[in-house]
């Protein structure tokens, strides 16, 4: 069964034109058949009038000559002039009996009409209907002149004429459909360009523009499309710039917070541990019962320093610009493998040259990987995470696959994923996150090198 929504516009319009044309042909054929039937009855009425007048003259002649021999009615003189194939002439007396009847034979032909047409024609019309005219002489009705046509002959004539129309329809209708389809295909050819432009916009290529069109309607669509593309490109550029500033401000806040924590809490914890060590020495000499409390204070201070060191590492990561993206990510993965104690295994693979990668892209990629690993390990409970970073031609692709819980709302749409989307959007890239039906998730990030500007492309080339 055809799907109406997927019907080609050209095919649909061509079929509609064909249907309308067929309806017009049917109306013309019906009009022709009706006109032909009326013409046949009018002709029969005229012949009946001629026959009646001829018979009246014959009877008048008989009375005028007072001839005892009368050949009334005699249809032979008039039949020589009016007879056609299938025509019947008759004279019916006042008592209703046929006093004389003369019929010409129907022509023998192999082109007989189909039964369905015969039934249709007999249902709509009344072929063979008699045309009668009274024969009157001196005010006295002598009888009727009756004219009729063989129904088979009249039906065959109608089929012969209708057949020509059907033949014309059979030839003209397919030709008309082909011409309409070709004309529509030519007129709608610019819609392919419009579709290609929309696909480019959907793929993130906001440089797509449509050329001028000949049709006024399509030219209006083209103007709106180009204006929309320009507006969207400008809006995304402004949004990306704003996102870059917000991310830069966020990173600066993180660095400031890291300095504050290091300077204040780090020194305070170091002082607490030193005081605990001093108090332990004093307790060992004067009050041995306090040694346990001193050791507990020292252990607590050491644990807090370890926690602070981890927080400082997350707030202020290694200098990616100095160490390079590859070394920074390898260190990040090694740190997660070290802290996991065998519970979560991380692996990373590189394909490409990343030494000359622009600092903007490197820093954001590091943050994206950092957030993705945190989501996979802490929120999704993944036991295996595979990372792959590739750089080909003019774009970088990051693929992260894990076997974590697919129903975790944080892993799906938490603030971590939102932050990653903002970073990717700031680099004019694309991000996709898919959840497997039986668990696990796949994160894909594609970033064009053009996001860092022409200079970055020159260095990365």
From TrEMBL:
SMART domains: HAMP, HATPase_c. The keyword Kinase applies. InterPro entries: HAMP_dom, HATPase_C_sf, HATPase_dom, Sensor_HK_TwoCompSys, Sig_transdc_His_kin_sub3_dim/P. The chain crosses the membrane at residues 13-34, 165-185. Keywords: Kinase, Membrane, Phosphoprotein, Transferase, Transmembrane, Transmembrane helix, Two-component regulatory system. GO terms for molecular function: kinase activity. It is found in: Membrane. Coiled coil: none annotated. CDD domains: HAMP, HATPase_UhpB-NarQ-NarX-like. PROSITE patterns: HAMP. It comes from the Bacteria. The keyword Kinase applies. Residues 185-237 form the HAMP domain. Its main location: membrane. This is HAMP domain-containing sensor histidine kinase. It comes from Bradyrhizobium campsiandrae.
